Amino acid sequence: MKLSALSKTLGEFLRNEAGTYVTVFALATPAIFGAVSASVEMSSISRIRAQLQAALDASALATGKHLAITTDEDVLAVYARDYFDSNLGSALEPEKISFGFQFLDSPNSGKRIRVSANYDYDFMMKFLGMDELLLNIASEVTAGNRTIEVAIVLDNSGSMDTYTGSSYETRLEKAQEAAIALSTQLYTLANISNKPDPVKIAVVPFGHSVNIGSANRGEDWMDMNGWSSIHHENLNWEGTSKRGDDWPELVSYAAGYKALPQAAKARRQPPARLPSTG
């Protein structure tokens, strides 16, 4: 073939546009499939990360609440893992998850609970050049310094000596057991607080009234004028104390109160404060 003929043939080939799209598509196919695969992989990774984070958050919050029951680290670790597993769902493979639990001191705010999870993600498209990716996710809650003051008021009247239901325990014995159980649970809070005396509990037994002590006689917070609807149920209208001290003003007021009809008593305005004798 002459050189001129070869040049002519080569020129015609270069000017020929037939089959251009096939060539371009063949060259672009790897890039297109790579982009689609990467999009699918990233979507899957985001979904798994969100599932793990939600399960860890639920586990951390539930375990922090469980501190009110126990501060045993081994018990808390098992509780945290169980709660994590129950919120994980069935989409993830448990054998690919490494769960971590830490019960830490916080100098200024009590205790910290930190839960973490490592997940080995296997790429579906190996041709991207990556076989697996390790996802590291964690969640942490702080149990603040808690303080609490509680007064447990126990009925000590005669009816508490009776039995309840089919039990062989009296009502008073059951009340005592409930008070002990409540106190035990409340004192658990002291283990996660660095404040002095974070839990204070008072036990107040009563029959028909509570003895507040003679030192509080005449205090402003007492119902000295009988404003309460049940005030006159327990008041001694004889006008004397157990020591026999007379209280003439009380006797005078009582006589007027007893003489009123029931409807008038309900409408009666609060009287002037009765003077104390001490």
Task: Write up what this structure looks like.
There is one protein chain. This protein has three domains: 23-143, no CATH class; 147-212, Macrophage Migration Inhibitory Factor; 222-278, no CATH class. Helices cover 41% and strands 18% of the residues. The protein has seven helices and five strands. It has helices at 3-15, 20-66, 73-88, 171-187, 231-234, 248-259, 262-267, and strands at residues 97-106, 110-122, 132-143, 148-155, 199-206. Strand 1 and strand 2 form a beta hairpin. Helix 2 packs antiparallel against helix 3 (73-88). The model is unreliable at 263-278 (pLDDT under 50).
How many individual domains?
A: 3
Residues in helices, as a percent range = 40-55%
Order of helices and strands: HHHEEEEHEHHH
Strand order in space, largest sheet: 1-2-3
What's the average pLDDT? 74
Our estimate of the beta-strand percent is: 15-25%
Q: What is the first-to-last residue Cα distance?
A: 139 Å
Runs in which pLDDT lies below 50 for 5 or more consecutive residues are: 263-278
User: Outline, from the CA principal axes?
Assistant: rod-shaped
Computed structural class: alpha+beta
Rg over CA atoms:
40 Å
Main pleated-sheet profile: 3 strands, antiparallel
